[in-house]
Amino acid sequence: MSTKAGLIAASLVLAVAALTSSFTVKAADAGPKIAFDAGAATPRQVEEGTVKAVTRDYAAAWKSLGEAVEQNRADLLNANFAGTARERFGALVESQAKNGLRQRYVDRGHKVQVIFYSADGSSMQVRDTAQIEIQLLDGSEVVHSEQATVSYLALLTPAENSWKVRVLESVPEF
Amino acid sequence: MKALRTLVLASALVWPATVFAADLQVPKNVVAGQPVTINSAPGGTMYLFGPNVAVKQNVDAGTVEVPGERLQAAGRYTVVIGDSKATFFVTNGKPESIAFLARPSRVPAAAEEAVTGTAFIFDRYDNLVRQPLPVKFELAVAGGAPETRTATSRDGAAWVKMNSGRKEGAAQFVASTGAISTKRVVQHVASDPCSIRMRAARGNNGNIVVETDPIRDCSGNAVPDGTIVTFTSVDRKGRSTIDARIKRGIARAELPASDNATISVAAGVVMGNEIRWGGGR
After folding, report:
1. Is 0.90 topped by the overall pTM?
2. For a disulfide at B251, which of A151, B197, B220, B229, Cβ 3.0-4.6 Å?
3. What is the ipTM of this complex?
4. DSSP structure string for B164-227
C-alpha cells in the first residue's frame, strides 16, 4: 500500500471512529476511564456531542464521588449529582463523618451502555459495569479492601451546562 | 413480631453472600426496608457500609440484626465484623410512585406522535423498580375519545409516543401501573387552518373591507386568536399586503380602494380563496 493510500485509509478509519456512537475518554484530572456505548439507545439516538458531554460528566461524577467519600465532603457532590443520588451520597458522607469512617475508591474504569434516551432528550439511563477497588477505612485503618466488579444503574438528566446523575444504584446483575 | 421473625428466618435461608476469607452468614438479596439477621456473628466492632449509610457499632457474638431503616436504599452493602465479612444487595420493593415526564406542554390537535411520555417507577424509598411492569398511558381531552397505549418498563423506565387528540382543550395525560398513577396536563390547541374563506365589501371610505369566515383547523377547532392572517391585493398600481390577527375567530382588514384588484388570503402555508374585485365577482 502506498503512503498516500495508507494516509487515506487512516483518515477514513479516524473519520469512522469520530462518527461512531462508542466513545472512550480518559483524562487524569477528569475522572476514571469511561468506555461509553450509545449504540443501543432507544427511543432516540444519542448525538455525538451528547455522547462526549455525558462521558465527560459521568467520569467527573465518579471522580467527585470518590473524593467525597474519602474526604467526607458532601459539597464535592454538588456539581455532578442531583435528586436521590445527591441525597443518598450526602447521607453516606454525613454518617461516615459521624462515625469516623471513610472509603477509598481506586477506580479502574467503567463500561457504560445507554439503554434509554428519552425522545425529548431530558433523561438518559445507563448500565455501568465498573471495576473498582474499594477500601473501607476506620480513621486511617483499612478494615476491608476488595477488588470488585460492580453493576450500576444510573439515570442522568441535563442541567444548565452539564449532565447530572440523579440515580446511581448498584444492582446484583443486569 | 412473629411475622418479623418468620421473615428474618426466610431471609436467612437464601444462599450466602459474596465469599470472603471468613464469611458472615447474610442473605444475598434483601428487600428495601426489611431487617437482616446475621447469624453466628463474632463479637466486636461491626461496620456496615451501604449506598447512604456507614455504621460502626459494637455487637455481641451470636445473632446480629440490622434494622430495616438502615437498609432502605437499594444497592450493595458490605458488613464487616472483625475478620468476618460479607456483601449483600438490597433490592427495590413494590411500586409506590411514578415520576412522569410529559412533553410538550402545548401541542397542536391531531398531530401524529407529537406527545411523549416517560415514566420512572419507584418504590416507597425512591428505589427504581427494576422488574418489568405494564405501564398504561392515557391521553384524553374532556369529551373526546382517549388514546391509550401500554408499554412495559425496563429497569424502572417506560415510554410512549402518542398522537394528540382531535379536540382542543386541556388533555389529561395519565401514566399508571397497578393502583398507582400520575397525571400531567398537555394543552391541546387548534392546528393550522384547514381552509380559509373570505368575502369582500366596499367600505364607507371606498376602501375594500375583507373579512374571513370563522377559521378552523381540520378537526373543527377554532384557530387561536392572535394567529396572523395575511391579505394581499394586487392591481395595476402594485401590491398591498396587510397582516391581521384573528380576533374572535375571524380576521378582518381594510385594503386600499381599487377598481380592479385580485385579493388573496393566507395563514402560514394555508391559502384561502381568491377574489377578483371589480371584475364582476
Report:
1. no
2. B229
3. 0.85
4. PPSS-EEEEEEEEETTEEEEEEEEEE--SEEE--EEEEE-TTSPEEEEEPPPEETTSPBPPTT-
